[in-house]
Every structure is written in C-alpha cells, then in structure tokens.
Amino acid sequence: MADSSPPTSTVRALAGDLSARARATDQRRLLVLSGDRDAGWDAAFSAVDGADVDDDAVTFVTTREGVRFDRVSPARTDSLLGTTRSVVVCDAHEGFSPNLFGKLSGVVDGGGLLILLTPSLDAWPDSKSAFDESLAVPPFPTEAVTGRFRRRLVDLLWAHPGVALVEVDGDGGETVRRTGETDADVFAGGRTAPATPAAAAFPRVAYEACRTRDQSRALAALERLRGGTEAVVVEADRGRGKSSAAGLAAACLAAEGESVLVTAPRYRNAEEAFRRALELLETLGVEASHDADAHVVSVDPGGAGGGSGGGRIRFCRPAEVGSEPADVLLVDEAAALPVHLLTSFLDADRVAFFTTVHGYEGAGRGFTVRFRDRLDESEHRVTDVRLDDPIRYARGDPVESLAFRALLLDARPPVEQMVAEATPESVTYRSWSPDDLLADEHRLREVFGLLVLAHYRTEPNDLARLLDAPNLTLRALTHDGHVVSVALLAREGGLDAELRRRMYEGQRVRGNMLPDVLTSQVRDEDAAVPVGYRVMRIATHHTVRSRGLGSTLLDEIRRELHAGDPLAGRLGPHDTGEAGARNRGERPVDWLGVGYGATPALVSFWRDNGFATLYLSTSRNETSGEHSVVMCDALSRRGRQMQDRHTDWFLDRLEGTLSDPLRDLDADVVRAALGAVDRAFAPSLTDREWRVVVDASFGPGLYSVNPRPFRLLALRALTVEERPLDERQERLLVRKVLQAHPWDAVADELGFVSTGQCMKALGRAYQVLVERDGEEDAAAYRRRYE
C-alpha cells in the first residue's frame, strides 16, 4: 500500500528516541512492530520519519511494492551484503527466515535502526510461511512443521536489551510494550582508531584506509606475504573488516608487481575485497583495469605510481586453485571450505586464510580444530591476528548480541576437560526431541556447536531445521551429561506412486536426497518406496576422536531403527495407501544411508561401519571439488532388495563411467569406493580374453590389443574382500586400466622411472590376478611360459 498514511506519533517518537540512543553509542537498536500487517506497514513509515535519516539510506525488505524507499525482496537480500543502511525495515509477514535475519542484522550501520514487522508475537510462532513450506519434506505436510525457532526468537525479543516492542492493530492503535532500554555499562559503545606501524612496508595511505586499529594490525601482519614461505591467519567475527583487510593487502601486493589469487566459496564472498582493492589502487594513483566478468584487476606496468607494475588480482573458484599460478594466495571465508582443499592451498609459498569465527558462512572454531594442525606442520611460518572491533558499529552492539543468541552463531561444544575421558564404555545413548533441546539452552548450544564444528557449511536455517523440521531427528552420546558425539538423521522415502512418478520425470522433491539420486540419476522409479534414514550430519568432539565413538553411535542408531520408525507418528492420519502403511510404522525401517563428498578416509570410515557404495556422482561440487558418494546399509528385506539391485547397477556401469566422466577422480577415492561395494565383481571372460591377459602378463602379448578383459579383472581385484595387490599396484590399475590415462602420465604420477618400468609393473600385477582368479584354460595358457 502507499506510504502516505497519517503518522503514528507514538511510534515516530519512540523511533526518534531509539535513533538518538543508537547514534550516541554508535550502535544499533531493534524496533519490533507486531500485529496487523497493514497497521505495521503504516507504523513503519512513521518510524522511518522519526529516525530522521536520508531516504536513500533506507531499505524495505518485503514482497510488497509501492514504497518510495529502496525495496529488496527477501529472496534478493544477498545484494545487501557488503553494504550499509541507516534503517532497514524487514517485513516478516512473508519471506522471513533465520538466514534473512542473520544477513540483515549486519547491514544496518552504527546509529541505525533495524525495524521488524511481525504478526502478533503470540501468534507468530504458529503461523505458516514459505520457509515453513520448505521444511515440509514429503511425505510430511506443512502442518507437521513446528514454530519452535520463532517461539525462541520471540522469547528473546521480550527479554533482550535494546529491543523495543510495539503492538499495532487495524484500528490505528499502538501499545508500547518495551522501550528498548539497555544497560549503560554493558552497551557503552566506542571504537578504536587505526594506526600506521613505524616501519610499515605497505604505503601509509593503505593504513589510513583502515577503519579500526584491529584492521591496521591485520594489514601489518599481511606484509609478511611480500616474501618467504609465509602463512597468515586472520580470524574475526562477521563484520570486523577481514575481507577489507584482504583487499587492501591485495592492492598493495599487486602495486608491487605481484600476482595475487583470491579464492572463496563464491565470488560474492570476495566482492568486498575487490572493491577495497580498487579503491586503494585509485588512491595510490595506480592505473588498473577491472574485468568485472572475469573477476580480474590488472595493474598497468607503465602506469604512474605502479611500482614494479604488471601485478594483478584474480578470483578463482576453490577447486581450481591448483591450476592457477600466482605469487600470493588469499583465501576468504576459509572456514566454509573443506579441510582437504585448505590443505592443498599450502602448496602456495605465501598464503593467507581469512576465517569467520562466528557467522553463517562457516565456523572459525571448526577451521581451527580441523585444519590448524596441518597448517602448523607445514613449512610455513605462521602469523595469527584476530579482529574484534566491528567495522560498521561500536562494540557491545545489542542487535549483534541478539543475533548471536537467536541464531547460536557462537554455539560451542563442551570444553575439552569435560569430555576428555569419554570412551565407548562410558557414554550414554540419547534421543532428544526438539522440545528437549529447547528446554535446556546449554544442551542446545552443545549440540548445535558440535554440529557446526564438524561441518564446513552451517547456516542459521539449520538451527530452524533442527527445531522445526518434521523429517529430522537427533541422536547423541553423552559423557557425564556432556555431548561427545551427535548425529542428525533425515527420514527419507515412503513416497506414493504419483510423487515417485514425478520424481522420475525430473521434479525435485525436497529432503529426500538418497531416493532422489537413485531415482533421477540411476533411473530407479521404485527407489523411494522403502523408508530409510540418512545420516545428514555426524560429529564427534575433537578431543575424543579415533576412540570409536562415532561407530558406537551408528551401532546404537542401527539397533534402534531395527525396532521401528521413530518418526512415523509425526505423519498424521492423512497418509493413506501402501506408502501410508509403511510411514505409520507398520513395517520396519528399510535402510540407513549417507551421502557426502568422497575422500578416501571418509569412505573407509563408512565402509568400516557397514555401509556399501551405491553411487558415485559424475560431476564435482564446484566449491569442494569432490565427487559425491551415496552409501547404504540395508536393514530389512525390502532395503536389501534395493541395495542389491543398485550394487549390481553400480558395478555394471563402472567400466564406462571410470573411463569417461570419472576419468579424473582421485585414484584413492576409486580404490576406497570399490572396496566398499558389498560384493565382489564377478567377470565372465571368454577363453580368448583369458589368452589375451595371460599373453600380455607372462609373454609377448600386448595390453592395448584388447583392454576390456583387463578392466574386468581390475574391477574384481578392487572389490574382493581379500585384496591381492598392494596400494601402488591398485593405483596403477585405476589410472591406466580403468581410467585409461596415458602411460607417461601414469608413470610420472606413480613414480616410475620410465614408461617401460610402468608397463612391466602392470604385467606383474596381472600375473598375480591370473594366478588368483584365472580359470582352468588360463592356467593352461600360463604353463606355456614356465
């Protein structure tokens, strides 16, 4: 509706008072307008008037149109990241989500207001929205989605300092329930001024471009990247200017003629670094061109003020860093990248990691626990710097502290001392409902903190999924009451025939990852008939890893699922027919499964815990560079039937996929995935094919005459329980025989002194296989060469 309604004087005055207090402390305040949507809309315009800011500093985040201010739809709020506003009005009647709240809480500048329009706070938790619909994973209805996340948020809004609450109604009435008071001592505000080191190597103007003392300290640490074998780790909470520091350092290095490579999960994560780099290069008087499409900034070697000139700054996707030569590598949002990629970045002599300690792009503690030991063991001299001072507002900001509490951005697992003595014998198996978690904030923080720590991408929406999604359930192990291992399980399958048909014909079905892959990729229309549980996340406290706790947790889960379906009761009476009977728990759970980015260690872990390989994706994840693997452990006759047919299909297609779409898959991933197939491949070779193999292995025959029987025997060698070859021989079979790499490339990769030696090694490997698996005719051919 139009924004010409009569002013709501109470709201306008309250907004003016909140703005004055926010400006006095250089912090932000939150104003909640709850009740009728139209009335809240009118009150929001009055609040903007009361805040007394320029119109171009105001943004409305809403699906509605008809505002004179900047308007952004909730689906497009990524466009606000890296920008600041004096006032942001968020219309939470439509499009609200935890992710949205997390993003907007960082957009408002110091002295500004975040205004939240909500339904009545009593009714809001139980209202349904598009976000709730996204949590309604088939066959669960939207009605099964709860409002626990919003209930917890509402409780915080009633209690948190710096939050003003006004109830509005359709008759123009408003009632102030809270005025947004804060503790003057806790929320005192204040900033620190940047400083230039006495012996700075980077230009003074670079330090003058810093916005806090912390940021200037970070820039000074990044001077170490000018030479040597150096690694700099910059840790910060969101909004502390680490990306800006990366951009300032990149500009200084490029101005000196260095080639700087910037990587991040997505380019938008690095946009602030590029923006700041361009600003500084202009201030330095360095002539530079910017190819926005290619994400490249090139310094003119002949330009004024360019120093050595010829430097450049380029963005590269994480999975492609190894193929892009550069002098310096800057890794932004490092906590949002998997460990194996971070480890590969240590091949660079000069590298900096910029990591968010608390934020929806990743978890810095996870970066520290999972990667830091590898960094310390590298040849790099490591320098650490931490940024604590916010860039956009002063310390102690109440909006930031509210976001941290509401979204659990600072959730941590138990301290090491509390769980250090945990063993499989000392732990207790727990099944906690979302209500159990809400009833104990400490337990909720331990659980979510451990989930965040173990996974390289966790977002605020995941907290709402944990609390509200009807298809998820949590299992844990505790030691002396503290969480040491946790698994988040997603119920999948049990879909009716019509939905299975649509899935087969290309429709995406939310939340049924394993059946969806087996249906859409492998073309099995019946894959979504059985009911199973996918291990969506599993995590063990870093202090007690490698003690068998993860395996103990999986054993307990498997034992529980054998007894019945723990979530069948959430489906309700609407679920009818054969799928309904299965979903109501009238038959047991059929399978326990998992899907993840394949690494040799992870595949081995799941294989050792009884899971079998059913599928390898033919494309890589753009961020991690990994191929996904789907593994399954059948728990019922129906589950065994599904697993058996997909095992057969997986083995049947390997000969073709490994030599084409999976031709570059890591050899050790191939070895691990094949070793996790739950039956040995059984090739059927003709007498003629056996003769080709024997002649090439023991006599003067040639492998290249007919590679097919060699591939079939290789598949058997890599799937039998008692593996007959050593690791190097297995890699040789993978690279040369199954993936058809050139002889010289294979010889170089596996460390053979020549292609001739590599060929002889392959012959010796097949001598072992002929002796082991050769049939009677093969033995006769073999005796010719004795």
UniProtKB/TrEMBL annotation:
Record key words, sorted: Acyltransferase, ATP-binding, Cytoplasm, Nucleotide-binding, RNA-binding, Transferase, tRNA processing, tRNA-binding
Any GO BP annotation: tRNA acetylation
GO cellular component entries: cytoplasm
EC number: 2.3.1.193
Signal peptide: none
Domain TcmA/NAT10 helicase: 233-410
Annotated positions binding acetyl-CoA: I538, A539, T540
GO function terms (MF aspect): 18S rRNA cytidine N-acetyltransferase activity; ATP binding; mRNA N-acetyltransferase activity; tRNA binding; tRNA cytidine N4-acetyltransferase activity
Domain spans labelled N-acetyltransferase: 447-558, 585-635
TmcA/NAT10 N-terminal domain sequence ranges: 15-167
Segments of this protein annotated with the region Disordered: 565-584
Principal subcellular localization: cytoplasm
Name of the top EC class for this enzyme: transferase
Binding site for ATP: Q215, R392
Subcellular localization: Cytoplasm
Biased composition (Basic and acidic residues): 572-584
Source species, domain of life: Archaea
NCBIfam families: RNAactase_tcmA_Halo
Function as written in the Swiss-Prot or TrEMBL entry: Catalyzes the formation of N(4)-acetylcytidine (ac(4)C) at the wobble position of tRNA(Met), by using acetyl-CoA as an acetyl donor and ATP (or GTP).
Family stated for the protein in its record: Belongs to the TmcA family.
Name of the protein in question: tRNA(Met) cytidine acetyltransferase TmcA
Natural source organism: Salinigranum rubrum
